[in-house]
Specification:
Chain lengths: ~300, ~300
Amino acid sequence: MTESTAHETVEASQHVVGHAFRDIAVALTGVPGDSSAFEAAVDLARHFGSRLELLQMLLMPTPFVDAWSLVPDASFYQVYDDMRQLARKESEAWRGKLAAQRVEGDVRVLEALYIEPSALAAHAARTTDLVVLSLPFRAPIDTSVVHAYFSGLLAGAGRPVLVVPSTSTATLPPRRAMVAWTDAPEAARAVNDALPLLRGCDAVDIVSVRRDPAVPPAGRRLDDLCRHLRRHGVDARSLVVDPGESTVAATLLSHASRTRAQLLVSGGYGHSRLREWAAGGVTRELFLDAPIPILFSH
Amino acid sequence: MSTTSAPPSTEPVPSSPAGAMQASCFADVLALLTMDPQDGALVEAAVAIADGMPARAILPVGLPDRVRCPWGVSPQSALLADHRARREDASAHLAMLRRTATRCGGIVDCLALEHANHGLIGSILSVARTARLLVLGVPADIGRTLTPDRRFTDALVATGRPLLVLPRKANLVTRPRRVLVAWRDGPASSRAVHEALPWLRSAHAVRVVTVLGPSLSQAERESAAGEARLRGHLARHGVTATVACVDAQNRPPEHALMDEAGAMGADLIVTGAYGHPRALEFVFGGTTINLLSRCRLPILMAH
């Protein structure tokens, strides 16, 4: 890096405040592991001075109407009341935690009755800057619940989604980050959405995995991207890695662990979600296997 | 992949990067040129937005892999002559645009992007994805044809970057001061508003409008739940906005939007673009295209 660009980087990083995350939504999906999303969001909120909005999802069972009655069974109202009572107790607990952490914020209970809960969450997340979601401990049923929220939020909110692992502690804001670059609109969005986080990093690697050895690497495009990031105060370097025998996701994750990256930035679901969930793919593998937080944009 | 043969450029270093950064958060603006008289306006807009930072402009030059050749001329030399003519046209056009940029006091790196005709759009998109904001003009035949120019629609939906679209007759000489945000509850609106934040922050007046169509019940729900939250969210970003719902009164929504823009004296409209890349011709009609073909204000769009 030349002297002048180094100067530019240092100067530019003083204007972090102008472009920070002001509102951060935390999607509490009701699975064990929610607290790691909360802790990650608290760390970010302290750094950026943001307000937290805890979205507590409450999936209501659809009323059962049998052939003999048009009115739902009265016992359902009892069930609803119980659920609401429980949710109220939980949201009080979350409010207590917010107060204990001395972070500005509030808890919203989103009651999903006759509506896809992730659509409700996406609606709420549109008026925030970032959504934080945590991956549960490896219980398959919980994972599928969280994945449904994840994909719904990613596609419907129009905001970046930060997925935090619950098995390891996340360092947020990160000091070293890595961007998984592909020539796709999702990746372009992810890099720009992640700017507030990348700006504070000492080192940012733009990694492009060379899937097809016949195609020459897009070095010039990576240089353009690095210059764009430098102008926004991010000190980035680009590299192209060869996956060899392993998958793209595994290559990215091994590079991340080798460089001790604390955040991965990636586009999510360039292909249709259904196809990716059925046939596997980079987004899903990263979502399930990453030991570090990942910021996804769609 | 790309057979770009653009001349190597020396990156001009801005004289006071800190000051420039503070004023403009769109530090890497890219204008997509089209060999059209409107290109001059695009370069001027790029200079206005970049606000002292260097901007980029690319002129795609599609090179055919075969041309019609008269009797007695070898196909090879006819092809070479055709390519040479295209290159010369492009470099003359670029020289003119460089003069325009110098005249309005900006640094614009004007380059030709040469590529074989097939795959030209792909190479435009991959350059566009490395920018912060794209500036482009509305094609002349927009709204009159069922299949809009793919360069334009693909830039809109397949780059993942926000676009400043300049309709014909519109120009942008300074930073916008009065901004109308057309809000429709959806991911594209949310993206557009967040991408526009640097401008909203420095604007004197910001008005967020949801146009209510026939599906009133859903709109009512949106307005009840979303208005206060949106206002609060913008306020935390330092933007004081008025948020309102407007009844389209059985007119197309773009009419209501343009009336609103006229009433507040807006100099920019911010809106999400709705449409699907693979079914563009069918879905991409409607409000977005009509707004582009009728409006005389610059529009900031995100998909």
